[in-house]
Design goal:
The structure holds two protein chains of two kinds.
Chain A: E1 2-11, E2 14-20, E3 25-29, H1 36-48, E4 67-76, E5 79-88, E6 94-97, E7 100-101, E8 114-117, H2 123-126, H3 129-143, H4 145-169, H5 176-216, E9 222-227, H6 235-241, H7 243-249, E10 260-265, E11 268-269, H8 276-298, E12 303-306, H9 315-326, E13 333-337, H10 340-347, E14 354-358
Parallel strand pairs in A: 3-13, 3-14, 8-12, 12-13
Antiparallel strand pairs in A: 1-2, 1-4, 4-5, 5-6, 6-7, 9-10, 10-11
Chain B: H1 6-15, H2 23-35, H3 38-54, E1 56-57, E2 64-65, E3 79-86, H4 89-96, E4 103-107, H5 125-133, E5 139-142, H6 148-160, E6 167-170, H7 186-194, H8 199-202
Helix pairs in contact in B: 1-2
The chains are: A alpha/beta, B alpha/beta.
Chain lengths: ~350, ~210
Amino acid sequence: MFLRSIHLTNYKNHADRSLAFSRRINCFIGANGMGKTNILDAIHYIALTKSYFSSTDQQNIRIGADFMRLTGDVSIQGHDYRIVSRQQVGKRKDFSINDLPYRKMSDHVGRMPVVMIAPDDGVLISGSSEERRKFLDNTLSQTDHEYLEHLVLYNKYLDQRNALLKSMNNGGRHDTVLLESYDEQLVRYGESVYRRRRQALSDLEPLFAHYHRLVSLEREQTSFSYDSTLNDTPLAEQLRDNLPKQILLERTTAGPHRDDIAFMLGDTRLKRFGSQGQQKSFLIALKLAQYHYIRAHKSFHPFLLIDDIFDKIDGERSRQLVQLLSGEDFGQIFITDTDEKHITDELGTGAGLFDIYRIP
Amino acid sequence: MKYSSKLIADAVSEFQKLPGIGEKTALRLVLHLLKQDKQKVAYFSEAVNRMRSEIKFCTRCQNVSDHELCDICGNNMRDQTQICLVESIRDIIAIENTNTYRGTYHVIGGVISPIDGVGPDQLNIPGLLERVQAGGIKEVIMALSPTIEGDTTIFYISRKLKDYDVQITSIARGVSFGGELEYTDELTLGRSIATRLPYENASIKSS
């Protein structure tokens, strides 16, 4: 897969900008606040129909403008696609591929897979379990359309069931038949989500171990531990047995919405210890594992976006990383850095492998 | 907008409360009525008035009716052993217009959605159970929206009916007639493949 060019109109701080890309490594160089990251974000948007950073679509429109538009020309396995997304202030966005508008944004997810490595990835280690579930959901949504569907249905049934628990706790009738209707659907979709997450984690583990060795230059054993309420007891049983407690708490206490992953380094959870550098190489390895997991499922290279590539990693490790990225295991890559010399030092100028774009 | 007559303003604001009517459309309707004969406008308001105050709801199926029983429940030519379960009166009108259904209906008035404060008690489900309990019903056809809420309602009602000797069916879901496969969304197409039918049944039979 190859992004030939992109055109940004009123996207974040870019009023009007066109860029054409090389097939391999594309570097955006510029001072802070110039909008390098926003270009990566625009590529992310083209790939997944939304910004990596903004929580609402409205935030993507340049301040003072009343609409934004993104156009991307992408080649996938010999076929050319033009992606256009337009959004007006206060309206719903539209998103089309070769002039055919998508009815549901989720239909696009997975067609143009993407992996983003950003400085705020640290939340994967330090943040709440929701961050780690999001990582798994992001990975699986791009490779398994049914997963995304089942996850969405699971969450909708869960919301309805929690509303029912709430009404039961506030004097509403204890309608066991209705509760069972929800339980049956939750079990159906929840078990499916659980099985797929479990499989994905066990597929990611060896890829991760491989890249962790390469990036961190350490020999320490790494592993994932999938903490799910479904590991030992079937969901149906837990939904039934803890009912009084669930009514009191007004929420469903078991299910994949409570899943977590523990990242292990040797016998210890990474959360508790680990230097900044250790965590950074851990996170990069995790994202590279995600990249290769998706690649294996799609049989073509996803886009790899790396924001602030040399953030928090020392010289030796960054050389190692650059060497890795220049290898044949990777496809089209987009990276940002503030210092051009930094990049040319690490990549070497003669390789012909990368193009530099100065922003602005 | 400003009006030189409070009578006009009041009428506009009443029309504006109707679904799909904005202020400009409301004004257009009011000015149109103003041009009509007084007698014509009286007929108009009389019709609206009587519609609301004299309408009955069928005691059996909750369809709108001029009598105790609606024209469908009271019609011996209709198959009184078949009940088609629908959310609203609009669904009855839609199904009647297909001219393919000869049974009766039952309006439950919505679908179960605890988030919106709609539980089984807010719906006309007891009425349905009574009809089935009374006997003589062979089939209940679920014609609810293919949403999570619709599915939950179908599941709930079928559980409530499981001890009765009555067949429960659901309207088919899948690729729309005259639609193109290529443009059908994956969820619908996937289901259509999974719940495919033997070819003889796929063509529309007249009943």
